[in-house]
Amino acid sequence: MNGNNGNKMINAMTEGNPLRLILAFAFPMFIGNIFQQLYNMVDSIVVGNYVGKVALAAVGTGFPVIFLMSSMFIGLGMGATILISQYIGAEDYDNVRKTSQTIYTAMLLSSIPISVIGLIFCEPILLLMNTPLDVLPMAKQYMLIIFAGTIGSVGYNINAGILQGFGDSKSSLLFLVIATVINIVLDLLFVVVFGWDVPGVAAATVIAQIFSWIFGIIYMKKKYDILKFQISKFYFDKGIFKKILKLGLPTGIQMSLFSVGIMSMQSLVNGYGADYMAGFNAANKIDTFAFMPIQSISNAVTTYTGQNIGAGRIDRVHKGTLAGASVSIIICILALIIIPLGPFMLGLFNSEPEVIDSGMIYLNNVMPFYVLLSAVFILNAVERGAGESVIPMVSSLASIWLGRIPSAYYIAAKFGKEYLFYSYPAGWILGLAITGSHYISGKWKIKSQKLLEN
């Protein structure tokens, strides 16, 4: 184990009350997620009100494709987060530095081919998704600009992943606030003042991400001695990258296949026209407000688990699981207020009655069952933090491919679009059965021991 002068600033989660530690870590992330959602919502609100429902549908239908292309980055970032948190728990700071440098090199270099692939195949993918011809041109414009700026999104997410492994969620919040403010200002400038429509919101997103990424690099190097390395001087440790792959590749594959599932759902939604697409897009943005605190708690539980596993404190992991699950259940109950507020909130995106009615179908079908989703996320977070990434992958893929998608197409054909989104809780039940049974078995503890030994 090796020390470092800047390591006193790392937030250890191996001592103290689990609930307090998880909440303290999750709260800045939750605030950050609010800004992240504002970041995304402003794009939709601006185009929905100043351009129209077709533009709102275009921005929404492009998201699953962008998510597909970035899924592997997110998965590998999660692998690096888990590995860094475990090395910090073990106080192995040399490997913390090597892991940070290696993931930076791997992800920045791989962002180039991803951009190229996205630029070439975005239109064929949109056509495969049954995108209406009146929506297709705007959706293509949006995606081309977003893919051209992939490196900004990748860089920002690398910074956030490294800091999460450090137990530092406050710095990530700062970077996100900066990106959100820039994005909002540029959205209004490019769309309302310059009249650039959908390309304007895409350009605003890319510029904001790149600026936040560069600021993050400067800030992190000043705050942490461990991170005082030259990003321009590429460093790559094959052994560490294999560990990152082992932890992150299943998550990346899971998210890629999950995003393909989302695209399949989007294709079904697209078949009902621009009104239904716009309502679905707006409802998804609102629904994310309920998901944000659950995601923040689950990310905190992942870091908490990783650090305690690294420190050999397996006894604290179960306490952290109970703490995270309890908070998530309370959040799900409070989130039900979204249903009565739904028409007002949907009206912020577009005031047409058909769009609002379509959005309410989603909210009424999905929100009452959010507790199922929270349970899946917390248990998956624990298992990922312990180094078990395969079962969460199987759980998530079974949830969407064996649960949500088949039931969505069946319900739509049998009962109509008004009941389509009951397919979501159907998938969550299946995912919970898989993850829950594996957590109860305790087999996930074995993976953590093998990972640190190798």
Low-confidence stretches: 1-9
Give me the count of strands: 0
Quick one: biggest sheet?
A: none
Q: What count of structural domains?
A: 1
Average of per-residue pLDDT values? 86
N-to-C CA distance: 15 Å
Give the SSE string.
HHHHHHHHHHHHHHHH
The Cα radius of gyration reads: 21 Å
What portion of residues is helical? over 70%
Number of continuous helical runs: 16
Query: Per DSSP, what share of the residues sits in E-state strands of 2 or more residues?
Result: under 5%
Shape: globular
The secondary structure category is: mainly alpha
Walk me through the structure.
By secondary structure, the protein is mostly helical. The protein has 16 helices and no strands. It has helices at 18-50, 53-89, 93-128, 136-148, 150-166, 170-193, 197-223, 238-270, 274-310, 314-334, 338-347, 353-366, 370-385, 390-414, 423-441, 444-453. Helix 2 (53-89) packs parallel to helix 4 (136-148). The chain has one domain.
